[in-house]
Amino acid sequence: MEPVRRQTIIHVGTNITITAVGFLSTFYFAHVLGPSILGAYFLFLAYFGIFNLISDGGIGGATAKRMSEGKEKGEFYSASAMLRLLLLVGALIILFVIQPYFVDLNTSDLFWWLVIALIINLPYGIAAGGNYGLGKAGVVQGSNLLNNLTRIILQVFFVFLGLQIAGLVGGFILGLFVGFLFNYRYLEVRFQRFTLVHLKSLFTFSFWIFLAASGLLILTTADVIFIGYFMENADVGVYRVAVQLASLGVFVALALENVLFPRFSLWNEEDKHEMIVTSLSRAVTYSLVLAIPFCVGGWILADKLLYYLYGDAFTTGTVALMVLLPLYVIYVFQYLQMMTLNSLNHPKDSFWITSVIVIVNIVLNVLLIPFIGITGAAIATLISILMSAILGYFVLGKYIHVEIEKKPILHILVATGIMALVVGGMRFLFPIESLAYLIALIIIGSVVYFVLLLRIDRDIHDELKAMSTQIGIFWPEFL
Q1: How far apart are CA 154 and CA 347, in angstroms?
Q2: Burial status of residue 444 (CB atoms within 10 A of its CB: 0-12, 13-18, 19 or more)
Q3: Is 413 exposed, middle or buried (0-12, 13-18, 19+ CB in 10 A)?
Q4: Which candidate, 374, 247, 230, places its Cα nearest to that of 316?
Q5: How many C-beta neighbours within 10 Å does residue 402 have?
Q6: How does DSSP classify residue 93?
Q7: Gap between the Cα atoms of 281 and 276, Å rounded
């Protein structure tokens, strides 16, 4: 487990850095630009996600899968690059054909920015996919860190100069380019002659990944697009800020997914399913260590978090935020289960699960958003993710024994409950009237939670202590 722990440390550390810097920059953008311009940028990201999926076609995931199996890595890498180039051409043709229908993009002068972003993202995706398939998850995460830090720094600089929406998308594109340069520096696979066999192998696997990923993308962007259709850009900005804040608790799960997928794939080839079962159950537990207390703490402080961090214009998203917080606890299960299904070579099952919840999500968005606004979008997504997690649990159970570590999760719930009593009691006795007091409550709640958890659960204590010692962080004796 040492390589897994080491790469997990890299991923968690990187995600903490990206999240912290990203949140600080969003606070700045929210106060300087307001919800309308932020909403236009979030719509740009939604459209980029859709057309990037078309230009990827599931090839990225298929490449990682085939290369991680340890056979003919150069051939699969080369075949994937050719396929992705062809898919990008197809995506751009579709984009130009339907350009007149993108009213939001055209009125915000974002269409050509979208074209440039898709072109720059092609070499970045190819190089990152190659490193990921080689098992260099740390390199990929490092490029992700550099990409995001470059993007954020340039966005802040450009916005400071008064560029507004152009500054946001310009920083986004330059970040992609820097991420590509970093990946290419450490890429140890080169283009080789490939055959139709390699293309067929990639396509067979990528087809179902593409369909499943399409459904997942629709699930995560339909709310934004429908809000933009039924409401205003400002509402999109408020909603996406609430989503960003609510998702803070799942970066551990995201880091573990990047580390575990290539290992699960290899263990599946070696028929070591017991290692997959153990690692998956541990991954769920450690993801919930942060997700559950963040959800409960967010419920207690939701309105004040939006007010003091983003501004009064964003407090209309309080109810939506409270709905989204438990969504990301459920997302831990859904995300890791879908990753495991794909690593076990069952992307078709992922597709059928995702297809069901996409239909449910679209119907609920259309029904709820016109009547209860962004709260309706949050409810639609919550119900959809819950259904996906339940279906994923039963489908995955057909292939491996899915274990939930009940005792550690009970310890997490106990520590969270006591933390909630402390923070909720302090808010009741001493109302929040300043940012400093809000931050103090967050710090107090975090200390209470982690001290209690580490005292009552020795397994979590020992694992976190080992990780801290490995990277040179001081571990207090009283723990």
Answers
A1: 38
A2: middle
A3: middle
A4: 374
A5: 19
A6: H
A7: 9
pLDDT of residue 1: 47
pLDDT in tens, 425-468: 999 999 999 999 999 999 999 999 988 988 887 777 676 666 55
Question: Does this model's pTM top 0.85?
Answer: no
Nearest to 241 by CA among 151, 305, 164: 305
Which among 115, 142, 97 has a CA at the least distance from the CA of 47?
115
The two tokens of residue 434 are: 């300043």
Please state, in angstroms and rounded to a whole number, the distance separating the CA atoms of residues 290 and 142: 22
What is the dihedral angle through the alpha carbons of 255, 257, 260, 261, rounded to the nearest 10 degrees? -140
pLDDT tens sequence across 396-427: 888 888 888 888 899 999 999 999 999 999 99
**DSSP state, residue 1:** -
User: Per the structure block, which two tokens stand in for 315?
Assistant: 């407090």
How many helices (H) and strands (E) in the chain? 16, 0
CA gap 113, 106 in Å, rounded: 11
Rg, the chain, Cα only: 22
Residue pair 54/213 in contact (Cβ under 8 Å)? The answer is no
Geometric angle at alpha carbon 24, from 20 and 27, rounded to 5°: 140
- 306 near 315, Cβ under 8 Å? yes
Tokens describing residue 378: 């949050």
